[in-house]
Amino acid sequence: MGQSVEIKDVWKSFGGFDAVRSATVKIQAGEFLSLLGPSGSGKSTLLMMVAGFLQPTSGKILIGDEDVTAVPANRRGIGMVFQKYALFPHMTVFENIAFPLKMRKLRRSEIESRVGQALDLVKLRDLGSRLPIQLSGGQQQRVAVARALVFEPPVLLMDEPLGALDKKLREEMQFEIKNLQQSLGVTMVYVTHDQEEALTMSDRVAVMNHGEMQQIADPKTLYREPGSPFVADFVGKMNLIEVTYVDQTASGALLKTAGGNRFSIQNLAVSTPDPERPMKIAARPETIALSRRNETSGTLLEGTIHQCVFMGSMTMVQVIVGPEDEVVYVQTEADASYKPGEVAYLEFDGSRTSLFAHGPDEN
Amino acid sequence: MSIKEPHNAGRSDSRILYGAGMSWSLILPWLGLLVVGFAYPVFKLLSGSFFDDGFTLVHYQRAVTEPLYTAVLLRTLRIALIVTVCALLVGYPIAYAISKLVRPWSMVVAACVLIPFWTSILVRSYAWIVLLQRKGLINTLLIDLGVTSEPLRLLYTEFAVILAMTHVLLPFLILPVYGALKTIPADLPMAAYNLGATPIKVFWKVVFPLSLPGVFAGCLITFILALGFYITPALVGGPNSLMMATLIGQQTTQVLNWPFAGALATILLITTVVLAVMFRTLLAKNRGFSSGI
């Protein structure tokens, strides 16, 4: 039932400001794609253009094989769930869900049976006669989903639909939405600023920043092989440490921190070994090993324990490296017993550490 | 559930900050003025209409039985109703425009509504006399255009009363409607449009029903003000467009029949209250989203 959505070199400018720059992505029929980014990254603007509320300054949007760039929103036939649900407060739940069917001039009996099915789908069978104000946040959310799906749109758009819910309900709804999307086979474009949500729900995630799509990849690739320092920092917890390249030694690439500490990383791929050029290494807390003794002598990064935070299944240790008080987060087993002020050594796993050139416009 | 919390929280905050004594001390001077300047004279006037050497209903009898007075009452109701409908038809699009236009333009249109609103009713009523009189702007224009050879009789007619009252009362309708339109979240019309509604359907199915609390409030205010309107009908109306307030004015200032004026005032007051209550009931039946006016 889903149809592909193709965004071709889409730009959107407001005055002189480019809110979206050259967005290009082909979303397969039935795929779940998240647009992930901080506020002001252009993800909502892009969604509004797919919905037809905004006209792209240039570029094309295709649904299936049809170019819909010039088609008004009310004739695109796309389902949409708004951030604050946008339920009509003067209509009952039934009337809200029946609205798109009435606009399509369906017969009354047909409308009744389809609204009934939609209510079943979101498990609100008995609440058809309530007004939106009489429902809880989670129930309103479900009505919004039912209303967006009842006319069987090939594409469903969601604009941060879970932002107003508390954490537990949010996680429940994540699974429900994902299941619904999969069982109906509808193509989903999902806007969120919550990287966890994007990772758990999506087939692919497009990370946006300053109006640009920085990386489009499946959640695993995004997490393990971030394409830019921004993606590395935005998705999951990431240590970014400024270094310069010194030499290639027997124990791997020898690097120097900004504070002058030397350390080496085994199996680290250095594409441009230029000692003049500042770089950043990116390593996840769970890929760094922490030890009390520098067994391989001089090749591990020395740091001072700042704080240990017990988090249930593990302990997050904050280690200060160098004189600039740069903090590195290291994930250790839950009952690790480091004390603040203690000296410890960090061992990086070269195969799970990324190296980025420290460009001038990087952020 | 959680949606209502901030609202209630705000209320209890002010209750914590200011005790009952503070509230009363703020209200008292105004309350005193109200009793001396309004409640007492109105009470005197009303009681005067019932008591004339003992209890009597003779003034009410006269007001109800003499055709002139019932005709004036019915005319007053009719004119107030027409004025309200005209104000709604003219005012709603203006309110809608102000709520839709972007910054400098919405201010310009709002100023066009508000500046006359701040101008004296007397001045605005005289302006209509200038426009509508035999050799006024409108007649001159019509003759110059060849629409008519003789100047039309526009002033001192019911038409003039309705026209001028609609103009004077327009802001009382525009402002509540604008307020209601402004509180409609932008994503509701967007959602309706997304769900397949044409722009016209978006308006009639979503925007208009949600603006109804403002429409009701505006109509109620306009209607009640129109019922008791004095200056404008007295200036631009003629003997054939006499309204209740003007009639009461005549009774007190020219005929000096205060008890009868009191009776007429009582009838007008009761009519107004009954209609206001009916309006409110209608508003309360409006499901779940009334503005509370």
Give a quick set of tags describing it.
heterodimer; A: 363 residues; alpha+beta; Rossmann fold; OB fold (Dihydrolipoamide Acetyltransferase, E2P); 5-stranded antiparallel β-sheet; 20 strands; 23% helix; 35% strand; B: 293 residues; mainly alpha; MetI-like fold; 13 helices; disordered N terminus; disordered C terminus; ABC transporter permease (chain B); MetI-like (chain B); cell membrane (chain B); membrane (chain B)
Question: Could you characterize what this model shows?
Answer:
The complex is a heterodimer of chains A (363) and B (293). With 363 residues, chain A is of the alpha+beta class. Chain A has two domains: 224 residues, P-loop containing nucleotide triphosphate hydrolases (Rossmann fold), CATH 3.40.50; 119 residues, OB fold (Dihydrolipoamide Acetyltransferase, E2P). Helix content of chain A is 23%, strand content 35%. Chain A has eight helices and 20 strands. Chain A has a six-stranded mixed β-sheet with strand order 6-7-8-3-9-10, sandwiched between helices. A five-stranded antiparallel β-sheet of chain A has the order 13-12-11-14-20. In chain A, strand 7, helix 5 and strand 8 form a beta-alpha-beta unit. The radius of gyration of chain A is 25 Å and the shape is elongated. The N terminus and C terminus of chain B are likely disordered. In chain B, helix 3 crosses helix 4, helix 3 packs across helix 13 and helix 5 packs across helix 8. Chain B has 13 helices and no strands. Chain B has one domain: MetI-like fold (Orthogonal Bundle), CATH 1.10.3720. In chain B, 78% of the residues lie in helices and 0% in strands. By secondary structure, chain B is an all-alpha fold. Chains A and B meet through helix 2 of A and helix 9 and helix 10 of B.
